[in-house]
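I am writing to request your help with a piece of structural work I have in hand. What I wish to show you is a protein chain and, alongside it, a tokenised description of its three-dimensional fold. Could you please explain, in whatever detail you think fit, how the structure tokens follow from the sequence? You will find the record immediately after this paragraph.
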Amino acid sequence: MIKVAVTPKDALEQFFGFTKFKGEQEAIIKSVLQGENTFVIMPTGGGKSLCYQLPALMSEGTAIVVSPLIALMKNQVDALRGFSSDDGVAHFLNSSLTRNEALKVKEDIRSGRTKILYVAPESLTKKENVEFLSEIKISFFAIDEAHCISEWGHDFRPEYRRLRTIFDEIKRVPVIALTATATEKVQEDILKNLDIPNAKTYKASFNRPNLYYEVRPKRDVAREITRFVKQHDGRSGIIYCLSRKKVEEVAETLCVNGIKALPYHAGLDANQRASHQDKFLMEDADVIVATIAFGMGIDKPDVRFVIHHDIPKSLESYYQETGRGGRDGGEGKCITFYSYKDIEKLEKFLQGKPVAEQEIGKQLLQDTVSYAETSMCRRKYLLHYFGEELPGDNCGSCDNCLNPQETVDAQKDVALILEAVLESKERHRAKFICDLLTGTETSEMKTYKGESWKTYGKGSDKDVRHWLAVMRLTVVNGYLLKDIETYGNLSLTEKGKKFLKKPTKILFAIERDYSADTVSDMDNAPVRTTAADETLMKMLKELRQQIAKKKGLPPYVLFQDPSLEEMTMRYPITMEELTQVTGVGPGKAQKFGKPFVELIAQYVEDNEIEREEEVTVRSVVKKSGNKVHIIQNIDKRIPLDGIARSKGLSMDDLLTELESIVTSGTKLDIVYHLNEVFEGDTQDEIMDYFRESETDDIEAARVEFDGDYSEEELRMVRLRFMSEVAN
């Protein structure tokens, strides 16, 4: 046994080899050693683990640390053993242990060798473990990732709710609860549930100045991620996705593009997860693509980028996950891809859950939307969410501050919002206030007779999006308070009341629009942008017109505008490069591509254009398991509605998949299905329309046929036309 040092500082050097504490570590450790209940809110990378590890090593008995993940426990135990000559100093007790291994752990605890025991909450509830722990000397209980206790936390675990009861059953000893993310509501929840209302609370700053925050619209995510990772070759990074399927897709795409990437999700067996985690920590892999299961408590200081393929369910999740970057104080880039479509998907997942849980989930999602869509300083917004104010309005290290939007004086708009909140007696949420100002008739508006209020329709010259954006500004600047207990009811602060009496200039950055023309996955969908090189765009269109005329085809059959636009940005000068343009597959490139490539190559040479080093994103054969299945079933002449059902797709989603396949140059023969849907010469009529039309726009087709055909019917015939004529 190591001789226990006299002071925390001596112990720090003795056990860990460090000479000084970070932030409030020393004060926290002293609090625990004095037997006080302690609550620690400290950002990821702030050194939370030391706050219970050191007092555990200094105290008589064994500290019981409740931890949510087996991988986390293993990582922590391995790290502690690295600092000690005795492997028995730290153990974990969970379902991964054999009976003999569990007996060895208990033997070491009884002998006094073990100072720290990590347990999963599920293991803690087992009768045999409760009986065993009741017999030994316990120095204190530590709850890591304490936000798991709260329904308002981003990773709520019902089993965490039982901890206080179990602790009391074992032994009444001091408790230290630790979390990296906690809003005021979550903090209250933790203290109440653990029955430590008077715990000494330590809250460190949530500002991570070395992290750069950026939100990008979801357009061609595969290419953007691959390009980014290649630009940061050899650096460690984490990419988060919401689904296991997407994790596998992204990891595979990176691998075929020469990047050492591994997947990590709960669908992999425990050995595989542990192996992938170890490879990442040991730098045998540069990138880990993971669900949120990865990273809790993982101490890898040199993660240089954290990418979110999908926006997280809450800002707490986002903060914690981005916080895994740059823990050594070095560079950490946090890039998030955002589309409101992803929010809508997450909202659907809430359906069927208890009403209270739905309301909480929706509120957390709306806070995430507000962050993603805001044009104010992201760091300022984030810190405000966690109850911390950032001086000034420009952090110099987020996309909004480095590329600021145009600003206007929002004085009148802020005053109108405050008036509306007052008139609504401070009993309503942001959406109701927006509906009130825009004069939108809703059932809630009718219930409260809002149409008779003075502020009703006063802001109808601006849309809901604008009012929500100004409202965010009003909340962050402290004029309005959003009450979490009532799921976001708004009320005026003293500052807001003073502003109403004497309005002052308040600058508002015009919001970026992330809603339009976004792509919600990695499939080849046309990227709706404007041409980067207008001159080249004109030349490409003229060439397309000439070839189309010779072949007797509408121009869009060759390449659609979004594909031409992308050519003006990327300047593909080989056939291989052309196939990487969205909406262009090998088949289409082979059929129409040669003159386009030749024109671009000549244009690049004539104008001495320095092409950006191209990142060719090689597609994965099983890029979509759906696509292989769909093509095979069409070959078997299975009706389209049957194919959709077999894959759990709506007809709309299936048609989108089919359009992606055909646009990329693959022929699909769906005539057998169309013959069942249409009678007589109807198909030929629609086919003739697309043959002669200058556009493939479905809405234009509906107008042409006076609404005789549904969108679905027109899309199916368009598919046949594009497949037969363009491929």
In short: The chain is about 50% helix and 10% strand.
